[in-house]
């Protein structure tokens, strides 16, 4: 019991000490707001000339040379300007907290052999000594030049003026800015690529000549210029061979700075050095793997350039079929784009599916240039954008087992190789564009939904921005729940499942538009492979199905959400 009381008393004293320090540290002005106390140091960032950090047995010396800060001890290296500025800003902001007064015994405050930071600037130097943490744990005891008094500052504020050598070193590998880059040379394996910038843009100088995609070149440059060292391994590099730097795995030269990339390290990444620096660093593996081996990385390998918002027609042709779709004329500019199929006739268009293929085509890009292919023609796609026709043709390699795919770009002169994902996203079938949704209506056109499930009827309606449920109980519905229900039903597609042999309905879903007209009524009956059979009140027969996930999971979750949110 006695020990417990002592523990409680100690905890209480610590808490009171923290409160006391806070009240002494944060002063209030006449208006009751926070008021800054007197500063411990009088520093001017512009006048700072050197900083000496002594912590434990180590000393770091920083000196300003022109606009740069350099580390002059214990190593000679460029300093990270942001880290040095952070020290000066932190020290400039230190306020005199509790004034303890002169200390008869400095050891009582950890100030006999303290850590310290000395700031030298024109007009003299100032030193702050940092001692022990206060008993309450919230403050640190400090002293400054010119005063015998001991002060207390917040522990975090005191810690901010100390940084270790790694944090102070400039970790960026290259010093150039993107706007200043005029040339780039990458050597990797037996390949060598040189690109140069002129008034006309970026051009390939080696291994051949030709214009490049400025965006691709500058994307790579931006990433490489931002690369940093993960570790400083050695500052007097003598044995290049030991680290695979006598015959580098790759080298990257930006203007006149060259990064040599050596062998992998046991910690991950690779050894590297900036030529002539004498400093060995460890860098991320990605700096090596992202270095290109061919100029294709910098070429424009897009299949076709267009703005999908200007497309008015799309035609797809493949052996045995052809499909054409056009945009419908808008009644007003703010109306959503709608598509209609003009060939074959009698089919309704799935606008979302057409917009999706245009999105894929707009961003499609080859992986590399390829020789003209005498492969198997899979699909020819023509779009009319801004009044101009643009055509892309897809091919598979003659040897299907190779799994390689190609595209002939819009200009009809450039073959590129495609990865499997891009090829599959573009090599669509005509049924993709047919609107086989059970409820072919836009989400903003839905006004009422009635769902009957196992004798329970859910009746939900929207009027303007008001959403209400009238069955199985009366309640308001939030917009998110309504949107989730509408999206689930309007995106539900009729999948071919064969004829149902069971007619007992399990679920009946009815969707009405905002004028009260029935869009369709779908009856879900017996189980089908992978789902359940469904029939609609429109022209489709009972040869459709719905996924099992929708019947046993999605719909139940949505209905539960309507009842609980």
Q: What does the secondary structure layout of this molecule look like, with pairings?
A:
Layout: H1 2-25, E1 27-28, E2 34-35, E3 48-55, E4 58-65, E5 68-73, E6 77-78, H2 81-92, E7 99-102, E8 115-121, E9 124-133, E10 139-144, E11 149-154, H3 155-159, H4 165-168, E12 183-188, E13 191-198, E14 201-206, E15 210-211, H5 214-225, E16 231-234, E17 250-254, E18 257-264, E19 270-274, E20 280-283, H6 285-289, E21 311-318, E22 321-327, E23 339-343, H7 351-363, E24 368-369, E25 376-385, E26 388-396, E27 405-408, E28 415-418, H8 420-426, E29 446-453, E30 456-463, E31 466-471, E32 475-476, H9 479-490, E33 495-496, E34 507-513, E35 518-528, E36 531-536, E37 544-547, H10 548-564
Antiparallel strand pairs: 1-2, 3-4, 3-8, 4-5, 5-6, 7-11, 8-9, 9-10, 10-11, 12-13, 12-17, 13-14, 14-15, 16-20, 17-18, 18-19, 19-20, 21-22, 21-25, 22-23, 24-28, 25-26, 26-27, 27-28, 29-30, 29-34, 30-31, 31-32, 33-37, 34-35, 35-36, 36-37
Helix pairs in contact: 9-10
How would you describe the overall organization of this protein?
By secondary structure, the chain is an alpha+beta fold. The chain contains ten helices and 37 strands. Helix 9 runs antiparallel to helix 10. The longest helix has 24 residues, at 2-25. The protein is flat. The two termini are 51 Å apart. Residues 1-35 have low confidence and may be disordered.
Distance between the termini: 51 Å
Fraction in helix: 10-25%
Main sheet, how many strands, which sense, barrel? 9 strands, antiparallel
Q: Determine Rg (CA atoms, Å).
A: 36 Å
| Average pLDDT rating | 86
Please give the count of helices: 10
**Low-pLDDT stretches:** 1-35
- Spatial arrangement of strands, main beta sheet: 6-5-4-3-8-9-10-11-7
Number of strands: 37
Strand content: 35-45%
Find the structural class using helix and strand composition. Answer: alpha+beta
Characterize the overall form.
flat
